[in-house]
What we know:
alpha+beta, Aminopeptidase, 7-stranded mixed sheet, two-stranded antiparallel ribbon
Amino acid sequence: MNNNQINFLEPDTMLLLYxxxxxxxxxxxxxxxxxxxxxxxxxxxxxxxxxxxxxxxYYSNYFEYKFDTQIIEVIKNCADRKETWISNELxxxxxGLIKKGNLHSVEVYKDDELVGGLYGxxxxxAFFGESMFSKIxxxxxxxxxxxxxxxxxxxxxxxxxxxxxxxxxxxxxxxxSFEEYESLLMESYKTDTKF
Length: 195
């Protein structure tokens, strides 16, 4: 079967590709390609960094947090920027993963308004982080801490964040080889957990 006959955005195929370490991104023309970089970035769930500057706001009642109540809204907010890899076609494809129970969001609210959040895909004990957004200062950072705490509580083994950024490095994100990454994937698949 050639590539033209495979629907790479069909939910089961998407999950299979994620499970092998690939992730989708649309280019500036809207064409969706799957990527599998040689160097991957993860946040070690058993050894992450909680920035001191964030603790005060996180432990106050400044924000309210929810899971999976406005997944598509979170994705659309993540896509709402000058240049984005999150195309409308990809958003439609994500809906299939939501129906299967494999796409999740962490939402941050201030005065009942969605002000930040993130989303990602799960497969057994792995969480593949996709994107985050923030409408007010610290909202996406607090969403990430909430995610890490939740994943640890649910006994997840892997938090994949794809690429290293300054934003992620403050949480202890590290770059690893694809061989190391594959070994972590295999380990995470031994864990049958639910988000």
